[in-house]
Design brief:
The strands form three sheets. Strands 4-5-6-9-10-12-13-14 form an eight-stranded antiparallel β-barrel. Strands 1-2-3 form a three-stranded antiparallel β-sheet, with no helix packed on it. A two-stranded antiparallel sheet has the order 7-8. The chain is elongated and about 105 Å long. The termini are far apart. Helix content is about 10%, strand content about 50%. The chain is built from two helices and 14 strands, in the order αβββαβββββββββββ. It is mainly beta. The chain has two domains: about 40 residues, no CATH class; about 210 residues, Beta Barrel (Porin), CATH 2.40.160.
Length: about 280
């Protein structure tokens, strides 16, 4: 009977070794090795020293355009409250002389001011960082300053005036105010190392007359002022053609209106010309 416990013990030890060996083999299995490249993924599955499986999987790549904020700003800029400031003149067949019978309305050239407020301006890139389409909205003021002491007659069928012999005006001008819509094509040349580039833009500016008036100042027992509202037969709609040039933040503009500043046959046949600085860019 002593042999029975012996064989029982021997069989239990043998079974324990078998279970231990199987458990060790299962825990010694290494996880698959993965090599993940840009275009291909390789998986090496090792179950044992002599049993290796290699799998190659071709990866699919997807391209998605990601915009850089700075580049987007450069390509599609938006500006508020830039302005043009310069002088305006009335041209008559290449001269600055008023035609007959409006010789009394000669201007003080060099004192007439043009102020073009560009309230809003949007640039749309046609060729990134080179070619742009620019549009916007603004208000344009023209000041035509008379040389002589003339009084314009409001609400007349055609532009009429009288010569005032009793008052010597210190300032005597006709002011027009137009709502404007500029449309420009702008080209930007290659930037230098400092990030500066020569720029040029050209295109029409459409205008609709909002208001016009005369403003006079004189000294008679103190400063005297007079403002008279009226259309004075100025053109209700007009189109001016603008040219802008700029480099290193210094910008110039010129604008020419091929149609007369006044309604046809109701005033002198003269064309408005403006030149000056574009403050804040274009």
């Amino acid at each position: 009977m002593k042999t029975l416990p012996f064989y029982t013990t021997f069989f239990a030890l043998l079974l324990t070794n078998v279970i231990t060996a199987q458990t060790k083999d299962s825990t010694d299995v290494k996880p698959p090795m993965v090599i993940d490249g840009k275009k291909m993924k390789i998986t090496i599955d090792t179950k044992g020293k002599s049993d290796k499986t290699v799998k190659k999987t071709k990866k699919k790549t997807y391209a998605r355009r990601i915009y850089d904020t700075d580049d987007e700003t450069k390509n599609n800029g938006r500006d508020w409250f830039n302005f043009d400031l310069g002088f305006n003149f009335l041209a008559n067949n290449g001269t600055l002389d008023m035609p007959e019978p409006y010789k009394g309305l000669e201007l003080q050239n060099g004192k007439g001011c043009n102020f073009n407020l560009k309230i809003y301006q949007q640039s749309i890139s046609l060729v990134p960082q080179q070619l742009y389409f620019v549009y916007g909205a603004g208000i344009d003021w023209n000041n035509y300053r008379f040389r002589d002491n003339v009084d314009l007659i409001k609400d007349a069928d055609s532009l009429k005036y009288t010569l005032n012999t009793t008052i010597d005006y210190k300032k005597n001008k006709l002011v027009s105010t137009y709502l404007t819509i500029p449309l420009l094509i702008k080209y930007k040349f290659k930037e230098n190392k400092k990030g500066d580039a020569f720029q040029i833009a050209a295109g029409p500016q459409f205008g609709y007359l909002l208001n016009s008036h005369t403003k006079q100042k004189w000294d008679q027992g103190g400063d005297q002022k007079k403002k008279t509202n009226g259309d004075f037969n100025l053109s209700e709609f007009r189109i001016g053609y603008s040219l802008y040039l700029g480099y290193e933040g210094i910008n110039f503009y010129a604008r020419y209106y091929p149609e007369s500043a006044f309604k046809q046959s109701k005033g002198p046949d003269v064309n408005t010309v403006c030149v000056g600085l574009a403050i804040g860019g274009f």
